[in-house]
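Technical note accompanying the year-one report. For the benefit of new consortium partners, we illustrate the data format agreed upon in the data management plan: each record pairs a sequence with a C-alpha cell string. No post-processing was applied to the example shown here.
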Amino acid sequence: MRRLASDSRVRRVAVLVVVALLVGAIVVQRRTIVDAVGLLRGFSRSTLVILAVLGIIERVSRADVIRSLLPGTSLGRAEVIGDVGSAVSKGVPAGGPLATLLRWQIARDSGASAGPFVHMLVASGVATAFVSWGYPLVATLADISQREASLADLLIVAACAAVLIGSSAFWSFALFSPKAHRWTTERAEWVRSKFAGSAPGLASGDAVAFVAEVRGSLRATARRPFALLLRTTIAQGTGVIILWTALRGLGVGDELGVTEFARVYFVAQILGSFAPTPGGVGVIEAGLTGALVAAGVQADVALAGVLVYRFITYVLPILVGTGLYLWWRRTRTPPVPTVVQAVGFAAEPTGR
C-alpha cells in the first residue's frame, strides 16, 4: 500500500510539472497558437470530407478488432465497448483500470464470458504494440534502402527492432513455456485464495482452468496472428493517414518526406507511452509539433495539423464514448454491477 501511495504521489507531481511546463509554453508561444487556429479555416471541403471519412474508418476499424476477438459480439456493441473504454482511459487520470471494468460490464451484457474478454484485452494490446513499433521500422528500412542511412535512421531501426524482438521472445516464453504455465497457475491460485473473501466469485471459480483457457486462446492467436495484425494495422494506419492528410491539407509538401514522417510518428509513440497525463494530452501535442518543426514544417502549420489529428483521434473518442456510455446506461435492463462484483469477473464460469 505504501508503494502504491508513493507511486501515486510521484505521478501527481509529474502531472503538475508537465502542466506547469505546458502552461509556460502556451504563454510563450501564444502567437503561434493563435496563428495555428486561424489556419484551420483554410481547409478545403474535400480535405474536410476525407478527414471525416478517415475518422469514421478509424473508430470502426478499432471496433472491428474487438469484434474479431469476442465471438458473438456485433460490430455496434464492439464500438460501444471500445469507445467507452477509450473515453475513460483518455479522459480520466489513471483511468485504465476503470476503463477495463466498464468494458467488461458492457461485454458481459452482450453475453461474453471472462476468458474471451481477457484474451481480447491481451491480444489487442500486444498487436497494437507490434504494429506501433513495426511501422517506423518498416518505413525507415524502406527509405534507407534508397539512400545512405543517417545516425537517426540507425537509432530508430535499432530501437524498434529491440522492442519487437524482445516482445516476441517474452510472449513466446509466456505462452509456450511449461515453466511459465506453472508460474501463472501458481499466481492464479494465490489471487483466488487472497481475495476470495472480498470477491466471493473468486472462491467458486476454477482459477487454473481459467488461466489455461486464456493461455490456450492466446496461443491459437499467436500461431495465426496475420488477421489480427492486419486489422490492427488498418486501425493504427488510419490515424497515421489522418495526421498526413491534415498536414497536406495545410500546404505541407516535400519538406516532410517518408523518413521524417516516420520519425515524427516514432516520437509520438514514445511520448504516448511515457506521458503521465491521460492519453498523453499536452505532451504528445508538444512533442509532435516539435518533431515536425525539426523536420522542416513551419511551427504554426505543424501545430494546426497536430491539433486536427488530436481532435479526431483523442477528443472525438471521448465525446463519442461518453455519449455511448450514457446510452448504454439508459437502455440496459440489468443493474450495473458493483466494483467488487466486476473485480471477480476473472473467476466466473467461462461457459456462460
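Partners are asked to follow this layout when depositing records. The chain has 15 helices and no strands.
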